[in-house]
Fold each of these.
Amino acid sequence: MKNLLPLLIFPLVFALAFVSCQEGAGDASEDNNARSVSQVIHELADLPYAHDALEPHIDEKTMMIHHGRHHQAYVNNLNNAIAGTPLADMDLIDIFAEMSQHSMAVRNNGGGHYNHDLFWNIMSPDGGGEPEGDLAEAISSTFGSFEDFQAEFKRMGMTQFGSGWAWLIVDADGNLKVTQTPNQDNPLMDVVEERGTPILGVDVWEHGYYLHYQNRRGDYIDAFWNVVDWNAVSELYAAALSS
Ligand code: MN
């Protein structure tokens, strides 16, 4: 009987580990719609830097919760929403182009996944300063100066009522514009007024800044400029113009 004990214990340990994994995934859900992911279609990429790398401008705890919980929940809920449907085989950008034909679950979570991927990648611990080259010239000729652009972008972030995003986009004619969208909408979706390709965005959901800045959204946007990776934004600008 003594020799049988490991045979009984090992399956039990594995079963408990499995259950605990499933519960962990459920914790990340924002809307209590915590079904387990039935099919991995979209995946959460690692941050391109450490969670504390954007300190003191964006704090480590906010980054851990924002990426590991909120973004993960968008990914899980998106996968659940599209599993077994034709959308599972489509790029998000193609889904956004016909967004009005799809469910709010796909709109909110598809937008949530795409927007956060962009957000993580246009920030860097080596960011800040001003853009150079073609993007710098386009910003000056469009908005008057870099400072005028910053003021207009901040105004978009400040006047977005409730949750949403402020964007710098390239429209269909190749012109720069600053816009805002509610919730997890983005300028690629056919449901928004001002459409274009986003090359810079700031998340003005309270989950993006409340731990460190509380209600001071303006201070958060001011600090955001210190971590903007203008090289990444310039690459997105060039890609948007050539597409
Ligand atoms: Mn967010």
Amino acid sequence: VKIAVLKETRANERRVAMVPAVADKLIKLGARIQIQSGAGDAVKLPDSAFKNVSFAADARSLVADADIVVAVQPPDIEVARSMKEGAILVSFVYAHKEVELTKLLRDRKITCFAMELVPRITRAQAMDALSSQAALAGYYAVLIGATNIARMLPMMTTAVGSIRPQRTLVMGLGVAGLQALATARRLGAMTEGYDVRPETKEQAESLGAKFVDTGVDARGAGGYARELTEEEKAKIAAVVTKHIQSADVIVTTAAIPGRPSPKLISKAQVDGMKAGSVIVDLAAEGGGNCEYTKPGETVQVGQVTIIGPLNVPSMLGEHASELYAKNQFNLIELFLKDQSVKLDWSDEVIAKTALTHAGEIKNEAAKKAVD
Ligand code: NAD
């Protein structure tokens, strides 16, 4: 079985889908690995760090005879077109944003496992790249916040008096948000967390944070949040505004599957924020959680800074690649058996992660988005 590893080409993408430790494990399973030259350059992982693999310069010839192609971002159309019929692709896809690619994968009978479709079940945790990457982003968002205020987060006692600890508010307590709370706390900030799923109260408190309780319960399907009604939004604003306006660093992470990012911070709320404070909006990719957010930019509104970073996991590209490659390995191990590919469609992880197979789009939501 030949596994091809693509070099990433998209803007802001620095990760690589293979690291030496994972390559070794795949070789032990009987795979041959060919890597596009320089694939790890952006994370300072030179080709020479990989042992017992071969290299190719051109992506199209690299994938032409590969049985499995791995990448972080969806491949370019021309590269996907060069894959052999019936081969396997493992990468993030987000079919609703990649309609042409998804149709091509279907028509070329590629079996595509889309990393964003890995089910959020206990058995699949080791394959869950959304979670591994979100955890890194949550950590890094706090560092971005901390280095964009002219203050320290922790308390400090000095000869000329004490400096009080600063306040960090995290809005949206999924994987990224909880990691942000933990990080801010480790840096000595006073931490507060807020979410519309009530079960996050206990999770926030276990990380030493105060929970901002609005009394709104917006639990939706599958452990995610649903969209809020106008009444709920008003009820929340009444409680949350004073927490927004007393924070030094705010990290927002809120997302609703398949919908644009919910707006958690209005322009009016920003206008009343403390001078010198900062919002780091991890939802910028989906339009942002703050009405002022501009994806990929830093906006100054009065004395408040609103940062909308894109592809935050890539800013920690080395660890992001390591965790991502391990997530992919755990998935590939499910179907790489006795030196050949065996797909067990009764396995929930295989069935749910498949985006396309044998000329069909297997994921219902993707099918609707594409057709
Ligand atoms: P996400 O990225 O979809 O959303 C981030 C957070 O934003 C969520 O906590 C959500 O409740 C919150 N949110 C949405 N709208 C909001 C609003 N209007 N105001 C405030 N907060 C809002 O979340 P995620 O990190 O992907 O996690 C989603 C769920 O999946 C969580 O319940 C998590 O525990 C669960 N999960 C389970 C597993 C597993 O069992 N294997 C793995 C990972 C995540």
